[in-house]
Amino acid sequence: MPLDTGAPEVSAAASPTVVRVGAHLTLYITATFDDGVEVNLREPLDLGPAFEVRRRVSEDRRTTDGRTTREWQLDVMPWELGDLAIAPIAVTFTAFGRAGQVQTNAVPMKITGDLGDTVEDPKDMRGLALPIGLWARDWFWIWAATAAGAVAGVVIVALWVHRRRRRRTQRLVGGAIARPLRVDMTAERALERLLAIERSGVLDRDADRKAGYADMVEVMREYLGARYRIAIHDLTSSELLARLAGVAPLDEVDERSESGGSGPTGSAGGEGGRRLLIDGVTGWLESCDLVKYGGLRASPAEAGKVLDDARVLIVATSQPHAATVSAQEAA
9-35 burial string, b = 16+ CB within 10 Å, else e? Predict the structure, then answer.
């Protein structure tokens, strides 16, 4: 049987046929064929440089005479001006074990420009010009200056925070220590409370001075309990000291013992440092108990000295290897 007997009937049409350059049009390709025949578009599908196929879909439907019609819908964009034509498109098919192809008709098109009716002839358009160099803004130095400014800002803020914290520490110790060390939050809270006692004037008034001593003792007891994790509730001073002797860290030693010098802790090491810590706290508490319970009438200057000794103990015990210093200064 001749191959032409099973060849499909093909055609092509476009809508619209007049379109602006860069716009969209739809190209319709139809093929009508009998049962037992397979049809498809030739691949790759190329409409030439003037047209670009963006996407395509296909659909089959049965005709009244029992045949099948396959329709392809192609989304096409034109890129050249003038009276053009979409070239015939090859449709391949297989029939009776043999393969062949047929072509659609050409589709005439008119592609207009975006300049409107003033320019209809492509020959009237200006020709291509040579490329020209363009200036590009260099942002490197701007970014570098911004980064340098950011670093400088961070440094300035860090210095400001450091100076403010140092001034705050100097304010809390109230001149009791010439060069106060940096203190932690536990010590800072205790120093704040001592500063409040000092500013209240309770230590300057004879009638209220004993109450001021009681307030200082309470501050010191709560500080030691928080510093060394001791439950101070209902503990007497002697019981507090006994508990403190068992939990004070051994690394709080005299600086002279670390450098190998002589002194009360030169050979005892950490145990000597712990002993001086206990002795310093013991001496401070005893001086307060003489006013609270012993009937000793302290002067405003003596009360101020006791408050400064409390500050020295707090600042020293908040630093590693400094407990002995506090004990010696408070003694």
Answer: ebebebeeeebebeeebebebbbbbee
Query: Model-level pTM?
Result: 0.42
Cis peptide before 16 (omega within 30 of 0): yes
- Rounded distance, CA 255 to CA 326, Å? 12
CA–CA separation, 280 and 323 (whole Å): 9
Question: Whose CA is closest to 226, among 275, 188, 169?
Answer: 188
Task: Report CA torsion sign: 39, 43, 47, 53.
Answer: positive
Return the SS3 of 235: coil
Please list, in sequence order, all residues whose beta carbon lies within 8 angstroms of the beta carbon of residue 70, skipping any fewer than 6 positions away: 30, 31, 32, 33, 39, 58, 59, 60
Quick one: CA dihedral 248, 254, 257, 259, positive or negative? positive
In the chain, the amino acid numbered 85 is A
Torsion, Cα 94 60 78 16, to 10 degrees, reads: 130
What sign does the dihedral 321-323-327-330 (CA atoms) show? positive
- CB of 295 closer than 8 Å to CB of 224: no
List phi, psi (to 5°) of 110.
-125, 120
Domain map (residue ranges) of the chain: 3-112, 144-257+265-330
Token pair in block for residue 204: 């300057």
- Could you say which DSSP state residue 66 is in? S
Helix (H, G, I), strand (E, B) or coil at 186: helix
The number of residues in the chain equals 331
b/e burial code for range 110-126 (CB count within 10 A of at least 16 → b): ebbbeeeeeeeeeeeee
The percent of the chain in helix, strand and coil, each rounded to the nearest 5, is 45, 20, 35
Three-point CA angle 40, 44, 48, nearest 5°: 115
**Two structure tokens written together for 63:** 């005709």
Dump pLDDT digits (tens) for 55-82: 999 999 999 998 999 999 999 999 999 9
Kindly report, residue by residue over 23-55, the tens digit of the pLDDT.
999 999 999 999 989 999 988 888 888 999 999
Query: What fold does the segment set 3-112 form as a domain?
Result: Jelly Rolls (2.60.120)
